[in-house]
Amino acid sequence: MKKLMIVSVVLLSLSLCFQGAEKKPRPFETVKVPPLNPIKNPVFEKTVLDNGLQVYFFEKHELPLISLTAMIRGGGVDESKAGQAELFGEVLRSGGTKSMSGDKVDEFLENIGAEIETYSGDAAVTVRAKMLRENREEVIPLFVEFLVSPAFPEEKIQLAKTQMNSQISRRNDNVNGLARREFMKLVYGADSPYASQLEYADVEALERIDLLRFHDKFFRPEQTIIAVVGDFDTPEMKETFGKLLGGWKNGTIAPAFAVPNIPEPKASVSFIEKNDVEQSTILLGHLGLRLDDPDYPAVNMLSEVLGGGMASRIFTQVRTLKGLAYGAGGYMMPAYDHKGAFYFYTSTKPESTREALQTILDEIKKVRTGKVTDEELTRARDGYMNSFAFEFDSTEKIARRMLLYKFYGYPEKFNEELRGKIEKVTADDILAAAGKHLFDDKLAVLVVGKKEVRDQLGSFGSVGVIDITIPDQPVKEVLPEPTPETMKKGTELLKAAAVKVGEKQLTDLKNFSFECTTTMKTPMGDFSVKQKGLFVFPDKSRVEIESPMGKIEEVVKGSEGYRTMNGRKKVIPESQLKEAKRSLYLSLAGANILRDVISGKLQGQYIGPKEIDSRKAELVVVTIENAPVKLYIAEGMLIGVGTRQNTHEGPKDLVEVYGDFRVVQGLLVPFVRRTFDGGNVSEQTFYSSAALNVEPQAADKEALGLK
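RE: above sequence
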C-alpha cells in the first residue's frame, strides 16, 4: 500500500511538471525572426551605342573579377531548320573565332583561369565570360570576337553533330527525361517549338551555311544587350566597349519576331510502354501562365500549397499517408514570353499506379473547391520568400535577372514588385486563381511504365499509346534488288563457309566460354578491359568485365538484361539491350548466322566483290530483324561482318574483321577481332582462351536460368 502511494505521488508530480512545461513556450518559439531585407537593385549605368547596342555596367570592387553576359535575340523558336539553333550555340564556342581556333581558346583561357561559354535557348543566344581584372584587356576583345566574327570550322560542326546524334540515340534511356519530353508535346502540341524533338535526319541536314545564316540574321547590335559586372572603372569600360563594338554593323534586313501560337489545352490520357523500368512515372498538367500575369502571385502560392515540398498536400497524401511513392509534388513553371505549364508528378510501384494518379487528381479537385488554411498559406509564403532571397544574393545574380527583364520587356524593378504581390496573397486569392487557371477536366495525363500498367488507366479516359521508336538515320547506300540468281549464289557461299569452319560443330554448338582483352580508342586515349564469360546460344550471355572503375557483370537473357557494379544492379536500357542482343547473335564470327543458313532459316543475297581490310572478299547480305547485315567471305571463310549499330555517338556503320583462326574442338574460331569505324580501327579484341559446350558455372546457371 505504501509503495502504491509513493508511485501515485511520483506520477502526480511528473504530470504537474509536464503540464507546467506545456504552458511555457519552447526555446525556438521565443526566437523572433526579423523580416527579410528588401531587394535592392544595384547601382548601374547604361549606355546605348550609335548602332543600338545596349550595355549595362554594374561596378563593384569586393573581388578582382569581371563577368560579361550578352543576350542576342533569336533562338530555337526562330530557327529555319530543326536543330539549327542548338548546333549554332555549341559550335559558336567550340569553333573559336577567325583569329583563334576553339582549341587555342581553350588553352588560352585555362592558362589564365578565365571562362567563355555559349548556348542557345528558345528565344536567345547567350554568350558569357568571366575573368580576373588583370586579364580584361585580353579576354574582353576575345569575347567580342565571339559576337562579331565566329569561325564555325567544319570539323567542330561534325563533332557537334555526332554529339547530337548521341543524344538522340540515348534519349529513351532516362525515364524522367523521356517523360518530360513527351509531356511537353502533350501540353504545347507535338509541332510546337517549345516541344521540339530532333531526329537523325534533321541533324544530317544541317550544314555550315546554316550556322552562317543564323549568325547573319540574328547577331545584330540593336538586338543585343550586355551586362558587365565586377571590378572595373565604368568610364574606362564604356570606352572599351565603344571601341570594340561601336563599329559593329549588320546590313541584312532585320528579322521579325513572333511568339509561336500555343493551342488551348485538351484533356488526354497517354501511356508509354517501357519494360526496363521498375516504377511507373506519372506526369499530369496543362498550360499555365506567363511570369507577368496578374494572377501569377496567387497561382504561385497555389502550386506551393498543392505540390511544393514535403508539407504540400500532394506529398502528404501520396507519400506520408499512403506510402505510395518516395516523392510527389507539382508546380506551375512560368515563362517570360509565353505560357508556362502546370506539372504534377510522382513515381510509384506498377501495381499502385491507379491509386497514386487518383490521389493527385483528388487533391487538384479539392484545392479548386475549398480555401487553403492560414497555416498552409504562411508556410508556402515563407518557403517561397526564403528561396526567393537566394536568387538575389549577389550583384551578378541581380544583374543577370535585370538583363532578362530588359530582354523580355519587363519592368526594371519587376523582382521587387513580384515579392510585394506574393506577400499580399490571401486564401481567397488562391481559391479564385484555382478556379480560373487550374482545370481538372483539361489535364494531360502521361504514364510511363511496364506493359501491364496500361490496364489501370482505362478508368481515367480513353488511353492513347505513344510510340517512342527512334527513326533510323537515313542510309545513303542502296542495295540492288535481289534476284533468284543472287540469292542462290549468296546462300551457297554461306553454306560453304559453314562447312569450312565446321558444319557439325556449328549444329551441335550449345555454348561458348572465353577470356579476352578488349582495347577501345577514345578521345582520352586507349582504354582496355579484361573480360571472361559464357555465351549460351542463341540469346543468353553472362560476362564479367574488369575495368578501371571496378568489376562489372553484364547479363543478357532473351528480352531481359542487367548490369551489376559495386553491388548495384541496373537494368540495361531497351536501346542498349537491343544492341547487346544483336552483338550476341553475331558472336563467334557469325556462328548464329551460319547455323541459321544450315537449317534453312536464312538466305543470303550476293552483292559482288568487295575489299575489306586490304583483302579481296565476296559480299553477301542477309536480313536480320528487317535490317541488312553484310557478310564478307574470303577463301571460303566468313572473315567480317558489317552492321549499322546505335553507338554512344549515334548510329554508325561498323565492320568487325576476324583473324588468327584456330581450331577449338573441331571448330575454326577467330582469336582476334577488330572493329572498323569509317576505315579506322576503333576497337580490338584478343582472346586468350576459348572452349565449346562447357558445363556452366553456378553463377552462370543462376544468372541465366540454366538447369
